[in-house]
Amino acid sequence: MSKESEAIHFSLIHEGKVIPIVTKPYEFKNLMELIQNKIFIDEFGECLGMGRCCTCVVEVSSDTVFPDKERNEESTLLKNGIENPIMRLSCQIEIGTHLKNSVISILNQM
Ligand code: FES
Q1: How much distance in Å is there from the Cα of 76 to the middle of ligand 1?
Q2: For the whole model, what pTM was predicted?
Q3: Nearest partner of 106 among 82, 88, 92, judged by Cα
Q4: Best probe residue, ligand 1, of 54, 87, 107 (max atoms within 8 Å of C-beta)
Q5: How far apart are CA 77 and CA 98, in angstroms?
Q6: Out of 2-6, 10-14, 79-83, 87-91, least confident range
Q7: What is the set of domains in the chain, with CATH numbers?
């Protein structure tokens, strides 16, 4: 089995419900698009992934190691008073093996 077809299992938490997700690397452009596809949330991802609106914030399980934040993500989070390293912009997170077995909580929009 190639890495590209490897299944990625993780959980989303939305409004107190745990939603099991199975995807594969690059099935969606980013985590925000996956979330909008699996569970549509009104006003989530308003800037369509530009990293500017801060409406796609998620909290990742603290034992998950995600790629470092790019400059755009860091500055948008800081502008919105978010400094906690486990809070991320889902539009800046690619669909990859770093998501495996993670638990990601969808937060209320900013
Ligand atoms: S969709 Fe706007 S910051 Fe992520």
Answers
A1: 9
A2: 0.90
A3: 88
A4: 54
A5: 21
A6: 2-6
A7: 3-106 (3.10.20.30)
DSSP annotation string for 28-73:
SSSHHHHHHHHS--TTSSTTTTSS-S--SEEEE-TT--PPPPPHHH
Q: Is the CB of 52 under 6 A from ligand 1?
A: yes
Centre of ligand 1 to C-alpha 1, Å, is: 33
Residue 49 Cα to ligand 1 midpoint, Å, equals 4
Using one digit for the tens of pLDDT, what is the confidence trace for 49-65?
Answer: 999 999 999 999 878 78
